[in-house]
Design a protein that fits this description.
One of its GO terms (biological process) is carboxylic acid metabolic process. GO terms for molecular function: acetylpyruvate hydrolase activity; isomerase activity; metal ion binding. Residues 1-50 form the Rv2993c-like N-terminal domain. This protein is mainly beta. The chain has 2 domains: 2-47, Roll (SH3 type barrels); 56-254, Fumarylacetoacetase-like, C-terminal domain (Fumarylacetoacetate hydrolase, domain 2), CATH 3.90.850. 11% of the residues lie in helices and 40% in strands. The protein contains 4 helices and 20 strands. Strands 1, 2, 3, 4, 5, 6, 7, 8, 11, 12, 14 and 17 form a 12-stranded mixed sheet that branches. β19 and β20 (246-254) form a beta hairpin. It starts with a strand and ends in a 10-residue tail after the last strand.
Length: 264
């Protein structure tokens, strides 16, 4: 099942994507998947980020090949950080290259969307708390990120507005243990890997995070990026793809460009 969040002239809705139609839900997918009985044409809809203003939990150094290319030691526990909710943009919306930026990187990631609240969730039932999965781009300004991390902090380097594209849909029923994912920059393949290379898998991440934080419906967990990360510049288009989810495409624009407000 592919769940979309979208805008029409009469407002914002959620629906099940089936071909060129959206079967509108009666309420939020975090409440029910019951149909409203209304169908909408995809051609009439603007796809939005599939979750509105979520809490975003990121994980660093979680793909074995990426750890090796970074020259880092494998973590003994998941290295969680947070991104502000206003980093989220949806499909087609711009990644804004900030005036302070000098080395901005893309990071293709599988994102976990929590569907059911929980605290101290056991590993063997962690997926019961997951609604589904989407594509994410954990955009990062590396110079600021390194300066922060050298001092034991991490926020601004990954926290600029628009630094977390999500979408295009939430896919349910996927096995997150062996999904292909990757990224293209302006049509050139830059990342291609599988979640089988994760150091800590999705159930372990959900369980570990919930040992400290009560997870809420709509929370988003970014599971880490594989090897092959690299820079983007204004004028680039970044495609992040995840098997079973689809492709998330965003242009990169300079901050002083007239890009308008996010759709979220």
């Amino acid at each position: 099942m592919l769940i979309a969040r979208y805008r029409l002239d009469d407002g914002t809705h959620h629906g099940i994507l089936e071909g060129d139609r959206l079967n509108r839900l009666a309420r939020s997918p975090f409440e029910t998947l019951e149909s409203s009985g209304v169908t909408d044409a995809v051609a009439d809809a603007i796809l939005l980020a599939p979750v509105e203003a979520p809490r975003i939990f990121g994980v660093g150094l979680n793909y074995i090949a990426h750890i090796e290319e970074s020259g880092a030691k494998p973590p003994v526990r998941p290295l969680f950080f947070m991104k502000p909710s206003n980093t989220v943009v949806g499909p087609g919306e711009p990644i804004v290259y900030p005036r302070e930026g000098s080395n901005v990187h893309f990071e293709a990631e599988l994102a976990v969307v929590i569907g059911r609240a929980g605290r101290r969730v056991p590993v063997d039932s962690a997926l019961d708390h997951v609604l589904g999965f989407t594509c994410a781009n954990d955009v990062s300004e590396r110079v600021i990120q390194k300066e922060e991390m050298d001092q034991g902090a991490l926020l601004i380097g990954k926290g600029f507005d628009s630094f977390c594209p999500l979408g295009p849909v939430i896919a349910t029923g996927l096995d997150p243990s062996n999904l292909m994912l990757g990224a293209r920059v302006s049509g050139i393949d830059r990342q291609a890997s599988s979640t089988s290379d994760l150091l800590f898998g999705v159930p372990q991440l959900v369980s570990y995070l919930s040992s400290a934080v009560t997870l809420q419906p709509g929370d988003v967990i970014l599971t880490g990026t594989p090897s092959g990360v690299g820079p983007v510049v204004p004028g680039d288009n970044v495609d992040v793809w995840v098997q079973g989810v689809g492709v998330l495409t965003n242009p990169v624009v300079a901050e002083n460009a007239n890009v308008g407000l996010p759709r979220t």
